[in-house]
Amino acid sequence: MKIPLFLTVLSLFCFSLVQGQALRVGDTVPNYVFQEVINGDQKPISLSSQNNKPLLIDFWATWCAPCIPALHKMEEWQIEFEGQIDFISVSADSQENLSRFLQNSPLSIPVVWDTSHREIFPYRYVPHTVLIDSQGLILYMGSPKKLNSAILQKLIDGEDLQLPEEEKAAKSDYHLLETYQEEAFQYRLSSEQKGWSFKNEIQRDEDGKPRALDFRNVSLYRLLADVYQLSSVARIYSEEEVAAHRKYCFSLEQDSQYPVEIMEHAQAILNSHLEYEASWQAVVLDSVCVLEVLDSTKLPSISKEEERYFEYRGPYYLGKKVSTYDLIKYLENEVQLPVKDKAMLGYAFDMELNWTYGDGKSLNRELAKYGLLIKWSEQPEAVDLLLLKSKSGN
């Protein structure tokens, strides 16, 4: 039995803007000074005066889950190469978020708050690392996953560096094209279209009901999660290997008077043409994440807001007039596992969570303010999941 664990592209890497003239590999770093060092001795750090030692800069954000393991690796390297390489971590996140992170997860490497570095350091995603030699020459810019202790030791020893090629995502090996058109509805379903950009759109009418679908180059799990209106991709379950890397384009438009609701119609189309068949099933798992009431005296009050509103960015969540389903949806996307609702708050409430990826217990500390707790169940639990089965049987 296998439950696929996935992070959306929005969760694996976090988008950041690039401004101004950018440095490249082979350039010499300018006399740039990081003024706001918020831990340690808090003295400004100048890139042009790094004691003739190599320097590794890590760019990150508190709301970026993959950034935290990269920071911990930097901490390990600082101990391993003490006095031989300098390390700096730089973030354009808010000072408040950085301070809160350091309170929960202290770091020994310098943590810098800086918003203007993006004019010279080009990166679209974090975590992002820049490796600079003792002469100020940029040797590498990219994912920290390419670096390791052996490479850093070669840098110290003055040997030539041969950085390994970064693993590329598997390409789709599946070809599909199905189109249908009549007066009442029309649809197009195909495998990935290289010339099309990503699109994930559900058009809704004035009452908020879906009326048209337009997905372009989305993964199988993202497509199914939206069409089946799952709380997260963690609700997709399979006992066999699934080609999760495959991407699809799917559009569906239908007359408002069509007798089948559009999402139900979309599910039937996908089940008819995809190589996998999806169906709901109650799966009994040895242990699952559950949301429970910790202290009934602290439960949130009934919301007085007129309209429902929510936003989240990594470990920050703000909900107005939301339900436990909305909270479950957020939690599942963070822990990447199904979360069973045992709190069962039958009313709309307001909630604000501001926890830290570096401290797993901080999520429960935030939930505890509202009398709630997320934990592993103490006994087997049945969870409704979307079961995928290959039609080929392979």
Automatic annotation (TrEMBL):
Recorded GO MF terms: antioxidant activity; oxidoreductase activity
Keywords, comma-separated and alphabetical: Signal
One Pfam family this sequence matches: AhpC-TSA
KW Signal (keyword) present: yes
Alphabetical list of CDD domains matching this protein: TlpA_like_family
Signal peptide (UniProt feature, chain positions): 1-20
InterPro entries cross-referenced by the UniProt entry: AhpC/TSA, Thioredoxin-like_sf, Thioredoxin_domain, Thioredoxin_ResA/DsbE_sf
Organism superkingdom: Bacteria
Domain spans labelled Thioredoxin: 23-161
Record protein name field: TlpA family protein disulfide reductase
Organism: Croceimicrobium hydrocarbonivorans
Source organism phylogeny: Bacteria, Pseudomonadati, Bacteroidota, Flavobacteriia, Flavobacteriales
